[in-house]
Amino acid sequence: MTDRIERQVHIRAPRSRVWHAISNAEEYGRWFGANLQGQVFAPGQRARGPITIAGYEHVVFDVIIERVEPEQLMAFRWHPYAVDAAIDYSKEERTLVTFTLQDVGEGTLLKVVESGFDKVPPGRRMEAFRMNSGGWEGQLRNIDRHVSTAS
């Protein structure tokens, strides 16, 4: 097991378009599957909203924005795979999710790295890692489709 998940996708859209899709909270929610209406992604700010993905409507998307470097990097912290309403995740350390953008050929290379799984409680570490690993693959397909159809 590793402490980090790393995924990337080449999106055939300009960096500015991809940046807007990850840095604008409401648009992020549209492709990610969360209602983030009225939320803002700014350093030190918390963004929260209900997940809109079937079967996960009971889960709240809850992040604390750590860094924003326009058109280059956006990072937030969250509790990975925090889907059980009976568990209080607030005492757990959050993992760090970092998106980076880079111009590549005709488009943008979007990378996502989620790190800090070694601090997730042992009883749920493997499941959180497994679920988020597959989850990021799906989410990168979602943003690619979203940006490609919305540009």
TrEMBL record:
Classification via InterPro entries: ASHA1/2-like_C, START-like_dom_sf
CDD domains tied to this protein: SRPBCC_CalC_Aha1-like_5
Ranges where the Activator of Hsp90 ATPase homologue 1/2-like C-terminal domain occurs: 12-147
Family statement: Belongs to the AHA1 family.
Protein name from the UniProt record: SRPBCC family protein
